[in-house]
Amino acid sequence: MPHTITVLPGDGIGPEVMDVALEVLDAASAKFNFEISRSTHLVGGAALDATNNETPLPKQTIEASEKADAILFGSVGGPKWENLPPDIQPERGALLPLRKHFGLFANLRPGSCLPALTHASPVKNELIPNGFDVLCVRELTGGIYFGEPKGREDHNGDPVAFDTMVYKKSEIENILHVAFKAAMGRDKKLTSVDKANVLATSVLWRETANEIAAHYPEVTMDHLYVDNAAMQMVKRPDSFDVLVTENLFGDILSDEMAMISGSLGMLPSASLGEAKDNGLNFGMYEPSGGSAPDIAGQGIANPIAQILSVSMMLRYSLGETTAADAIDAAVQSAIDSGLRTGDLFTGINGEKKVNTTEMGNAILETL
Ligand code: NAD
């Protein structure tokens, strides 16, 4: 049976880096003997343009994705659509509804810095001689962003605003299983981040994490308070393997991780739904960055975040781990050989500046 995916290139650099990533996917499928059945659909500004500003998420895009094992997403948005009503703007009108429609409750964002790119990280290089590779697993559909009640009230002329942080045990269990399974496929170390010294939701989080840990005896788990985690992340990022945390903490920590990684153009992300009977999850895979309108159309964007999104898709939704490992290794080899797109180029150590296609070709050759 072929794996079925929908491809949603979107706007800006999305289609440019997607073309290269699909070539890598095709090469991997030929080399590792699996079939991909894929169809391309409109999303974001491209969909607004095609539907006379009716919707950034056409029905056909959702229906095709419902029949797929995964969505490979580019990026959406740009100045052209910024003045449209908020509900139909590309990010709010396409990205968030897709996450909701497919129940994508787990966000996986690797924060990694290859040894050859440590100079691009704002962390002192002597602290990370071999780079680092952390996976942040963030709960995406619960917590304070969605808890009720939330709102504003007038208390005798003194306005009061409130949000509610709420978690069900089942929600915590679901995200912890995702994190433990991810740790099993890596170095088997999991750090659970909470604020159990202050928050009731965090006390439940920590209790639940300790219970779920019993199902994964091979994984070593420790706990960190979120304020300490934020500090340790810049002090010893290379000591972490997988980090799991709730929605608000994960929002902040995963951006801190992206920053210390050095380049947005290197970072993929995955948003996963519930595991199916075969243990794999439906997921949406996309670069961590946006549509980069400042460089779109010039053929100079870094395609690696999109290529590593393909690798995450193969790993978490399609079960093609060997192919995913090979893509990761080919990316590392291109970087080790000194090739750099503009976002990474410093001109030192014999680096060679390349464009989107050249970087893609180097990765394809190694594959
Ligand atoms: P951005 O991530 O698009 O760009 C920030 C900076 O990073 C820019 O200088 C850009 O050139 C650079 N950059 C990003 N990806 C790169 C790559 N692959 N190669 C080289 N350089 C890269 O963020 P922004 O400028 O704040 O947003 C631009 C548009 O993207 C906005 O419309 C925003 O709403 C949208 N956006 C979309 C998503 C998404 O689709 N998931 C996420 C974030 C922002």
Write the layout of secondary structure elements.
Elements: E1 3-10, H1 14-32, E2 36-40, H2 45-50, H3 59-66, E3 70-75, H4 90-101, E4 106-113, E5 132-139, E6 151-155, E7 158-162, H5 169-184, E8 189-194, H6 200-213, E9 220-225, H7 226-235, E10 242-245, H8 247-261, E11 268-275, E12 281-287, H9 304-316, H10 321-336, E13 339-340, E14 352-353, H11 356-366
Parallel strand pairs: 1-2, 1-3, 3-12, 5-10, 8-9, 8-10, 13-14
Antiparallel strand pairs: 4-5, 4-11, 6-7, 11-12
Distance between the amino and carboxyl termini: 23 Å
Q: Count of DSSP E strands?
A: 14
Low-confidence stretches: none
| C-alpha geometry | globular
Identify the bound ligands. Answer: nicotinamide-adenine-dinucleotide
Q: Helical percent range?
A: 25-40%
Q: Helix and strand succession? A: EHEHHEHEEEEHEHEHEHEEHHEEH
Strand coverage percent: 15-25%
Q: In which order are the strands of the major sheet placed?
A: 2-1-3-12-11-4-5-10-8-9
CA radius of gyration is: 21 Å
Report the average pLDDT across residues.
Answer: 96
User: Given the helix and strand composition, which structural class is it?
Assistant: alpha/beta
Question: Given the structure, what is the number of helices?
Answer: 11
Largest sheet properties:
10 strands, mixed
What are the defining features of this structure?
single chain; 367 residues; alpha/beta; 10-stranded mixed beta sheet; two-stranded antiparallel sheet; binds nicotinamide-adenine-dinucleotide
